[in-house]
User: Fold these one by one.
Assistant:
Number 1:
Amino acid sequence: MQRITVQTTPIEGQKPGTSGLRKKTHVFMGPHFLENFIQSIWIGIGGVEGKTLVLGGDGRYFNDRAAQVILRMAAASGARKMIVGRNALLSTPAASNLIRLRGTDGGIIMSASHNPGGPDEDFGVKFNMSNGGPAPEEVTDRIFAATGTLTAYDIVETQDIDLSRIGTTNLAGMEIEIVDPVADYAALMETLFDFDAIRALLASGFRLRFDSMHAVTGPYATAILQEKLGAPAGSVVNAEPLPDFGGGHPDPNPIWAKELMDVMFADDAPDFGAASDGDGDRNMIVGRGIYVTPSDSVAVLAANAHLAPGYSEGLKGVARSMPTSRALDRVAEAKGLDCYETPTGWKFFGNLLDAGRVSICGEESAGTGSDHVREKDGLWAVLLWLNILAVKRQSVAEIMDEHWREFGRNYYSRHDYEGVDADKANALVDELRGKLADLPGQDFARLTVETADEFAYDDPVDGSRADKQGIRIGFKGGARIVLRLSGTGTVGATLRVYLEDVESDPSRMHRDAQEALADVIAAADTIAGITRHTGRTAPDVKT
Ligand code: VG1
Ligand code: CO
């Protein structure tokens, strides 16, 4: 075993995006790429010497190899200890929990989340802080700065560590503890929810189907839903994590989780369906014959969380990312709760959660979570839904109907234009930015613009500022368009167009969202010139 210093030179393009650094797997596997980034993390966090970190990933292709490299680099730089999920697996929320539970200095999560995996698909690495949450921009900026000046990295040369057996081992003086990835997380869930009530619901003939999409939640969902809560074997499907997610796209939405949608819209559909993404932090909720948008889901969860033991004393406040629909704001207003609007990405919720200002947060991209960890948490959302259903004994459709009648409905859809030429996408945004000041008062597709600006966020806890976080256009009557470029893609640019309108007439609350939003959709194209700039006449994905 030998500790060596390898000479290297900076590699371009190592700037972390919305959630860590994501690249094509072959890029990550290229000479020095992973090593450069990991050494830059050590620099960005002020060194790893004497520190304890958690390490795990979503099991995608290269997860196992990357784990060995990261362990050897941590040992070479003097880390005291690494706590690793067995076979280098940990869902993102389980990693967040482990960091908090063990009081570590942070952790590394190997995942490109909802992006597909495999040799020709994507890989990613993310650093989380000692609070269990994604590194804030100040830290990712330091990491990125280090990638630009790096000249060498340290690594230990040795055989692979056997990560398949729970227990403790040693690597060049660094302790490695291999833990069951599921146990602590499952125990945490048991403290938050009424497992007896959910067990009784499932014993009463209520049928559920959870689609793990061959990603990391398979073992978690099987242990919790089937083994602990008594859902019959086969309730959790696609449960085996595979390096390429079975060739699928582990993004839980009606397009990529179509298999689940088909089952839930069939005549003999189960009562409740759910799916999760690559690293287990996203959730999709679908009832028999009804899809629940993530923006509605977080609103329903906030309105009913008190029905679960972990939230019985009420919520401290709520938060949503800016493009997420304002269904949550309606609940907050009715309940007298503070509601914060943050930029896209879970890292912006961390300070609000740490400061005890909010208990539940959500994003339109199928991320929901609470102060139990510092990441969004797919299974947590599913369990809270089940707890609510167990108490209310209503169908998902009845719950949505009641919710809309009480709070009003926010029709919502996101249109994604993927793989757009980056220059064209930037030109679109620049042009739009240039005309924001002139938009108020103008009419488009029967809608009158009331406000138009580019979102900037001043963190109320630490005063940090994040600007250029998306363009938002508000119309008279409450409709809204938001446009921004994705920060998680690996090919070209992805333009995201978020569309919303409000409806308070109960007789008009059961329309198709695309139909209900037709004017808003038309206005978006006219205002932003989407077709003119991109040549596209329709989005690639509508969720
Ligand atoms: C997307 C979503 C955002 C989410 C992020 C990470 O980012 O829009 O809401 O926080 O993915 O989710 P972007 O920049 O592509 O819009 V995950 O599950 O990939 O960690
Ligand atoms: Co994810």
Number 2:
Amino acid sequence: MTDYIIRASAANSQIRAFAATTRDMAEESRKLHQTSPVATAALGRLLTAGAMMGIMMKGEDDLLTLQIKGDGPIQGLTVTADSKGRVKGYANHPEVMLPASEKGKLDVGGAVGNGILRVIMDMGMKEPYIGQTKLVSGEIAEDLTYYYAASEQVPSAVALGVLMNGDNTVRRAGGFIIQLMPFAEEETIEKLEAKISEIDSITALLDKDMTPEMILEHILGELDLEITDKIPTGYHCNCNKDRVEKAVISIGRKDIQEMIDDNETIEVNCQFCDKHYNFTVEEMKEIIKKASK
Ligand code: ZN
């Protein structure tokens, strides 16, 4: 696995930072879902964010879900990440094609449209934590910056980028999240803001062969950067027949009974990895028995 995330701090822990290279993850997602270039970029950005936000969670079994719902043609994106760098996701309409934006870039904002970003953290409590903000641009990094400011009151700089090859495979993907702690001093904030305003886009940095370490060094090098951890990350789906069975149960007794009556084997596809699971009539009868217990 060549994808990884680094965790770092700077300015005597007044700043915490994460940076990731996620080319393989974004390419794996593109292959699995056969995404169009704009959908590859949208999903690749959200997967990269999910990977970094996932490892911010402390518990072994903690789960993060990022949901985007918009009125653009892609309609929605869902990403789930655990605290160990494993992520998966899907786009509601992976086939969406749009003309490039005025700057000649893939129009992720246009594909997503106006809507909401929801962050769900399941940390083994009775109720999961749910934060929700409106989308600012649909470009995802800006939407997450706004989410952090409005919902968690953490001033953050978020950059996410996916760059394609001529044949629409993923050439580069990655990003960073840099956050100011509540006790950050005015001087630190000013230095960081000045630096962020002068750096190139994340895709430009990645395309100069810059590693996550180099990117953070570039931004935070003058602020006593300290890299504290390096975590492998990648696309990973943990579906199995038991989990899919639960989805079948949720269809409801009546519909399952109808399928049994029609004597049909049903095929269920995992949304995250497109693996097929077949349920025979006999298996569906068992499911009904279990469901009625
Ligand atoms: Zn799966």
